[in-house]
Amino acid sequence: MLEDEFVDVFGKAMRGTRVSVEQLAKATGLPASQIAAWAKGSAVPSEDQARALAGPLHLDPGKFADAAAVRWHPAPIDLPDVRHHPQQPHPSNGYVFFLEGNRRAALVDPAGIPQNLLRILRDGAYNLQYILITHKHPDHCDATGDIASNFPQAQIVMHKADVFAIGDLASRATLIRDGEELPFGDEARIRLLHTPGHTDGSSSFVFRSTVFTGDTLFAGSVGGAFGDVSTYADILNSVRSRLFTLPDDTVMMPGHGPPSKIGWEKAHNPFF
Asked: What CATH fold (topology level) applies to the domain 82-268?
């Protein structure tokens, strides 16, 4: 199941473009009452109606119509060097990626019940080198303190605009610089991308042919724009200029919902 249903995509586009129900009705000739029902999720537009709505919202008409008809879902993806875990009680995704052999590992977005994360790390006998945090929201970083105290050698990595969210640990964090790389084992590297828009410090992490996008890019959607300075336009630009420049076969592991691939998102995401 995708993180965002049609109503979510519709709502994010309306808020991002600041287009009202009345403005959509005037631009498309569709009844305002019907548009309001679609915006509430109590009804779904037809193919032609969805295509008409897409123009004023700056969405791709065909992809938006596909979202309304629920015509696309990414195929299942399973990677040998990435482990996904749901972050209960949050509805968010956490990940551990690692190098085979010495089990050197990085944890993406420490959140949820700390004991669950500690069990995952200990059961895997991981040598935790990095704690990578995509952004400041609690469902992506509220277990940072517990993980850091149990793995004091692990390096916390976060953008300076969001690092205040981890309290006193901010003073020991490595601050993200866009495009910089971190050494991982003897030969692997982790590339850091600043992808603002969801929050000012939202960031993504590239490991081999996988990118961890936090709440910047979802399968078939994008995150909401909640930055203090950055905007909806910034989140779209982050995807176009940072994420969509990655190879099409790059696997995208988001903060919510199923994984996808960069090429699939280019082909199916209504925002692009």
From this structure: Metallo-beta-lactamase; Chain A (3.60.15)
Could you tell me how far CA 215 lies from the centroid of its own chain?
Answer: 3
pTM above 0.85, yes or no: yes
Q: What is the pLDDT of residues 167-177, one digit of tens each?
A: 999 999 999 99
- pLDDT for the residue 102: 76
List the structure tokens of 130.
């990095």
What pLDDT is stored for residue 87 in this prediction? 97
Distance CA 162, CA 168 (A): 13
Q: What is the DSSP letter of 159?
A: -
Q: What angle do CA 8, 198, 12 make, to 5 degrees?
A: 20
Predicted pLDDT at 187: 87
Q: Is the peptide bond before 110 cis (omega within 30 degrees of 0)?
A: no
Residue carrying structure tokens 């049609």: 6
Specify the amino acid at residue 44.
Answer: V
Sheet holding 82-86, edge to edge: 82-86, 93-98, 104-108, 127-132, 155-158, 174-175
The domain ranges of the chain are 6-69, 82-268
Residue 26 tokens, joined: 């005037």
Residues of the chain with pLDDT under 70: none
- Residue 124: CB atoms within 10 A of its CB come to 14
Query: What's the pLDDT score for residue 101?
Result: 80
Q: Which CATH code is given to the segment(s) 6-69?
A: 1.10.260.40
